[in-house]
Amino acid sequence: MKRLLHILSAVMCLAACSQKPHRGTIDAPLYEVRNTKTVEISRIDLTDSTTVLHVEARFTPHWWIKIVSSTFLADEKGNQYPIVSAEGIELDKEFWMPDSGEAQFTLTFPPIPAGVNSIDFIEGYEQGAFRIWGIRLDGKLPKVNMPKPEKLAADATLPDIHPEYGKATFKVKVLGYRPDDQMNTVYLETCNLLSESGFKDGRLSDDGTFQIEVPLVQTSSANFYLAGLGELMTVFLEPGETTECFVNLRESSRRNSLFKESRDEEPLVVFKGAHAALNQAFADADMNHVLEHAATMGVDDITQSEIAGYDMKQYIDKMIELSQARMKVYYESDLPSAVKDYYLLNENANLLSGMMDSSSELAYAQTLAQNKSNEEYIRLLIAYQPERNRLVPADMVDVMNLPWAVYTSGYHRVKEIFMHQKSEDVFNAYPFLRTEGSFLEVADACLLMKGIREFKPLDEELMAKVQQLPDAWREYIEGENADLIATIEKNRKIEGYRKNEAGEIADEDLFASIIAPFRGKTILVDFWETWCGPCRNANEMMAPLKEELKDKDIVYIYIASESSPVGTWENMIPDLKGEHYRLSDKQSTYLKNMFGVEGVPTYLIVDPEGTVCWKQTGFPGAERMKAELFKAMGE
Fold first, then answer.
1. What are the φ/ψ torsions at residue 79 (nearest 5 degrees)?
2. What DSSP string describes 54-69?
3. Which of 209, 202, 256, 210 is nearest to 229 (CA)?
4. C-alpha span between 187 and 577 (Å, rounded)
5. CA-based nearest residue to 27, from 268, 261, 253
6. Helix residue ranges per DSSP H, 399-453
7. CB within 8 A of 170, min separation 6: which ones?
8. Is the separation of the CB atoms in 372 and 308 below 8 Å?
């Protein structure tokens, strides 16, 4: 009996001890993942009565941050410990960052029981709230099982080009991922040889995975972006094959930590599948910021005020000088040969693209500096074009005919001009592009795709030209043309969109008349054009959000101008549920001047009272758009 009492006493003692709080101080505590670079915990004080977090904040000077009173800690069993008080920052109040952009404050919580190994810091689940997961009280981080990276041979070259039509599969697996709207955005900017570069965006699943298929006509490069990394990476994809990317989110958090030296470095990104070793080399180069070395050597972008002070020759000479300085950085780097070749080719292609834009950039900078009208900009633009054409070196376009140039983003920027204009118009504007070689063969194929892009199925004459193309190109264009014909047929049956006429109305009354029928509703106005690639990409990214908000009292108004061909416009709008206007150029110009619209897409949100409460040029992302719509609705 005594023995039983001793056992019961020991068990009760253990139970009591297990409820005792942690005690001690943990400097620079280890943690698994955080969704922010703004706040980090520098120390934790554990006492019998409190848990005190010492917080380091880093943010833009004179911008504010906030810690809300609903902030809590959570342990691995789901127990929550609500915030008790704060010192150095007032809860629920905007805290304006000082000139230094640095601040310190403490947050006090109830004591954490002994036996708890890790806690999460949760400032809330709203967009923008700070969250830090897996703060270790036991000093032990769980193991992350990253695959072993493949090594690219120092003398390896960029891959040979294999024309083949097929879909490349790109998979992402984020290790250590916690479902979070601030870390789940994925972008893949594809560089298909015969189409415009386009963003394919998506969201990580709750298990940290993402998969997308991309139609290609040959080995191609793409730019990959993951919000949790905050870095843009070059990846190579192969038709008919799979490329996998494994991301260690914990290592990303470590690299952005004030206390990164106190933690062991781990692999950040590992590639498997097609072109694994090459993709690994690019990831390592990008992640180590090799390219940023150019900036440390005084190679900076030219500011608008500097451009305004140049004449055309000085501007182009400056562009060449900076490009040569960047290339010197690449030459002298220890990058693998294949990676170095890519960046050198890309630099040359970007220089050509920059020279092509030089007349418009110079005209814009000088018009802005002198506060002149749009008419003065047009005058300067026309005046500078002949001089630009004379100054562009005759051999600049040669880079476009080099086999590996097709992998570079600069190549596709130049190529896409042929997807917006007729070839003769391009050659009239840029006579230095008129040269023999593979680039013009690509440009001719892109002109065939231009018609499909404008919702104009290819006729017999054009289809005869398609039959003369390489098999991979032919298969791709035939497939796109067949898809277009099916889409046009489907659009004839679609409902939910409406064509509207603005009618004869005074310019100053135009916008009021457009929104008047929808007073009392929240309105999203989208200034767009059918020829605008970013507009079309944005429309695709908006589609899931519109479906999500279909029960909300929101009206979508799309405004295009006469620069959008009427046939193309009529075939594109059935996929955009909402109210559609194709205004005269005079009406469109008036509205754009009225709201300071300098490019498309530009968005306005009108609240139920009829007041424009938000404006944005360029698509801000579906989550930001959702937040602004909810704000306008008062939700």
1. -70, 140
2. EEEEE--TT-EE---T
3. 256
4. 24
5. 261
6. 409-415, 423-429, 438-453
7. 188, 211, 212, 213, 214, 222, 224, 235, 237, 242, 243, 245
8. no
Q: How far is CA 565 from the centre of its chain?
A: 29
* pLDDT at residue number 9: 38
Beta bridge partners of 39: 57
* The residue type at 557: I
Q: Which two tokens stand for residue 353?
A: 């693209």
Taking residues 52-58, what's their average pLDDT? 97
Cα 358 off chain centre by = 25
DSSP character string of 192-241: -TTS--EEEEEE--TTSEEEEEEEESSSEEEEEEETTTTEEEEEEE-TT-
Tell me the pLDDT of the chain averaged across its residues: 89
pLDDT in tens, 522-556: 999 999 999 888 898 899 889 999 999 999 999 99
Name the pairing type of β-strands 51-58 and 39-46: antiparallel
pLDDT digit string (tens) for 248-298? 999 999 988 999 887 888 999 999 999 999 999 999 885 455 556 555 544
Q: Please determine, for residue 21, whether its predicted confidence score (pLDDT) is greater than 50.
A: yes
8 Å CB contact between 528 and 560: yes
User: Quick one: average pLDDT of 63-88?
Assistant: 96
CA dihedral 62, 67, 69, 74 (to 10 degrees): 180
Task: State the SS3 of 347-397.
Answer: HHHHHHHHHHHHHHHHHHHHHHHCCCCHHHHHHHHHHHHHHHHHHCCCCHH
Instruction: Find the mean pLDDT for residues 482-492.
Output: 89
- For residue 601, is the peptide bond before it cis, meaning its omega torsion is within 30 degrees of 0? yes
Assess contact for 102 and 88: CB atoms under 8 A. no
Query: How far out from the chain centre does Cα 630 lie?
Result: 22
**H/E/C letters for each residue in 575-631?**
HCCEEEEECCHHHHHHHHHHHCCCCCCEEEEECCCCCEEEEEECCCCHHHHHHHHHH
Q: What pLDDT does 515 receive?
A: 95
Q: Number of C-alpha atoms within 13 angstroms, CB side, residue 248?
A: 21
**Segment 127-132 mean pLDDT:** 89
Give this prediction's pTM: 0.81
State the Cα–Cα distance between residues 119 and 121, nearest whole angstrom: 7
According to the model, what pLDDT value does residue 162 have? 82
Does the pLDDT value for residue 2 go beyond 50?
A: no
